[in-house]
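Please fill in the sequence for the structure shown.

STRUCTURE ENCODING:
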């Protein structure tokens, strides 16, 4: 039996404060949602970004 391969999917990182879609990343499906501190160009500072599918 061959292992099934999980396909990488594109997900967006959305700023929690402004709601802007600032980053896109490719990652395997499953697991916990990402929650990272990334730079928000509109606010010009680092804010928490959460993963969101399209």
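FILLED IN BY: designer on duty
SEQUENCE:
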């Amino acid at each position: 039996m061959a292992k099934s391969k999980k396909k990488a999917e594109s997900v967006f990182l959305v700023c929690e404060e402004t709601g802007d879609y600032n980053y896109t990343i490719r990652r395997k499906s499953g697991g916990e949602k990402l929650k990272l501190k990334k730079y928000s160009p509109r606010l010009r500072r680092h804010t928490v970004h959460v993963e969101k599918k399209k």
